[in-house]
Amino acid sequence: MGRQRLEIVPIMPLTWTHAPRPARMDPAGNSTARRSDYSTVEQSNERARPPAAGRMSRSGGLDLHFRDVVCRHGRLEAVAGVDLSVGAGERIALTGTNGSGKTTLLRAVLGLHRQVDGQILVGGRGSRTAAEWAWRRRACAWIPQRPAAGRFPLLARELLASSGAPAAAGEAAGRLGVGELADRPLSSLSGGQLQRMHLARAVGCVAAGAGVLLADEPTAALDFEGQEEAAEVLTSLPVTVVVVTHDRAMAARCDRTLEMAAGRLREVR
Length: 269
Prior knowledge:
Helix content: 25-40%
CATH topology: Rossmann fold
Number of domains: 1
Mean pLDDT: 81
């Protein structure tokens, strides 16, 4: 079976505030890089724009609005009447018990969950046509919960290239300690290594012009140091961030913390 064909779009320039350093790995395959090895990815205002009709704010990112959103799994109501506005460039931590509807809500933004009523707007745009869905999936970077290697023999390098900015994603992979694994199949990576690859891909998506980052428990498979590194990378990106997390350190870095319980949303901080 042949490999998946991946669409590559023009690479956007990046600015790192520190020179790259060699990745360091412990015997278990975890990165031993220090926090000071990381810095912010900046989008070029001249070349990097989200697709037309969804303009970035001056602070970076796209706004996100949920209006009376209801999501169902068959007859079960998983998300019940969510109303939420997320400002451009805002960072939101979404917490709550397992099964409370957090993942379903994020997947609904991308069209990965189809039983949805109400309205979800990204950058002021809806999702009534195939073209609008295609725009949204370029405008939103996605880090899934428990990333799967998939059925195809996809290489880590190909996953990074699917971000639209392979050079940026590759550089991020190097800083996250998995750059040397780029030629390995995804199926050969550990859970932590795979999660780092998806984080690097998200950095590439932002470099390619994504204005929203949706992350579903992006630190779950990482050790304590890796969790801190991932939190720093995610919250330093110049985009709107909504992250599902049980990590208090991650939540503390966000502007607001919201909690879901039985499909309903309330603000905690």
